[in-house]
Amino acid sequence: MTENTEWPASSWAAVTPRSAIAPSLQGDAETEVVVIGGGFSGLSTALHLVKRGRKTMLLEGAEIGWGASGRNNGQVIPTMSAVEPDAIVKRFGETGERFARLIGQSAETLFRLAEAEGIGCEAEQTGWFQPAHSPGRIRLSERRVEAWRRFGSPAQLLGREDCARLLGSDFWYGGMLNPTGGHVNPLALARGLAEACARQGAVLHENSPVTGYEREGDGWRVRTAGGSVRARAVVLATNAYTDALESGLEPRISRGAVPILSWQMASEPIGDNLRATIVPGRQAISDTRADLRFFRYDARNRLITGGSVLGAHDAEARVMAKASENMGKAFPQLSGIRFTHVWSGRVGITQDRLPHFHRLGPDLWGWTGCNGRGVALSISLGRELAAAVDGVSTKELALPLTEPDRVPFHPIARRIAPFILAWYKRRDRKEIAPA
């Protein structure tokens, strides 16, 4: 193992009731489909498979939601972080158009699924707002609103005055609002999805890290330390954690993206009078910076924010100081805010900033690269991956399949990735030229 499986000291872990832990896999078993990974995409895939009538087993190496799905900020965002829909269509044609529409509808898909399954995940569909951090970035907001509206998104452009009213601050210059977005308790969503999978008939095994798999006849043999399972099809849904517990599990996936450490923080609860002056509508906020500033409230009125810092030395204290300073600049009334929880997790970043989908062998599917947009996206991807396993033609799917593409000098890229923050800061100072 390359990473321990202790829970991070997150506010989500502190407040989210733990479901009954599924037993680890012991001995040999057989099923139709094995899903590897108990995060959002794996759980959504398993849920949609059993709804399609497929006998499904999900193997999680630690506990449900232990990876990125239980550690993130919980913002439900129906866009990609650095790629616009027209670029997706230009590259992938009709499949790209289906994928762009999937992205644009992904927040709505998540909230409606949570509602239909009765998942108590503190869901608030209050909208997602991306404020522009400089006058020139308003041009970027304008282009994004126009582009996403062509693909059916209800995105809106807010001017500076409307932006100030929405945020309770004149620190930004306007921006893009998507009313279908919002936020959730991500760990509660993961655990709720697991319960929904079990209700529908899926078999779940936690603390069952997969050590490998191989072709066996017309199917696959998936192995863990305690047993194995034979299946017709396998879905690898481990994203940035593919090599976290077993370094050689699937290099074609783990080398296709660079895992970046993202820090999250939760403040002490903010009083009602103060909270009413800061984002009174409780939207999820993440701005146009590459070294972005992001924040939202949880159900207990804690401010959930975070950031990134260069290097690992004293990172927890430095990211706390940095986020406190950033929030204080935008909202002076928050100066001196106290943070009670600080934690981190991996985000999978690809070279082209798009998720990569692969058919790695007969009935062997995998993907990587949420690029900071994994909450809403992963739920919709699970639906598509389930359809792919069930035999739906790739000509009908919203999955732009590609061949695995290794990040050049991957071991070096992993080491230097944290230092890309300095380049991000320089890029944030660059204005956007007129169209």
What does this structure look like?
The protein is α/β, with parallel strands linked by helices and 435 residues long. Helix content is 32%, strand content 22%. The chain contains twelve helices and 20 strands. The strands form four sheets. Strands 6-7-5-15-16-17-14-18 form an eight-stranded mixed sheet. Strands 9-3-2-13-20-19 form a six-stranded mixed sheet. The chain has a four-stranded mixed sheet with strand order 1-12-11-10, with no helix packed on it. Strand 10 and strand 11 form a beta hairpin.
The assigned structural class equals: alpha/beta
- Rg value: 21 Å
Count of β-strands:
20
Q: What portion of residues is helical?
A: 25-40%
How would a crystallographer describe the biggest sheet?
A: 8 strands, mixed
* Low-pLDDT residue spans: none
Shape: globular
**Overall pLDDT, averaged?**
93
Question: In oligomeric terms, what are we looking at?
Answer: single chain
What amount of the residues lies in strands? 15-25%
Task: Please give the order of strands in the largest beta sheet.
Answer: 6-7-5-15-16-17-14-18
Taking the alpha carbons of the first and last residues, their distance comes to: 50 Å
How many helical elements? 12
Task: Present the secondary structure layout.
Layout: H1 11-15, E1 27-30, E2 33-36, H2 40-51, E3 56-59, E4 75-76, H3 85-116, E5 128-131, H4 137-149, E6 156-158, H5 160-167, E7 175-178, E8 182-183, H6 186-200, E9 203-205, E10 210-216, E11 219-224, E12 227-231, E13 233-236, H7 251-254, E14 258-267, H8 272-275, E15 284-286, E16 294-297, E17 303-307, H9 315-330, E18 339-349, E19 356-361, E20 364-368, H10 374-389, H11 410-416, H12 420-428
Parallel strand pairs: 1-12, 2-3, 2-13, 3-9, 5-15, 13-20
Antiparallel strand pairs: 4-8, 5-7, 6-7, 10-11, 11-12, 14-17, 14-18, 15-16, 16-17, 19-20
Helix pairs in contact: 2-6, 2-10, 3-10
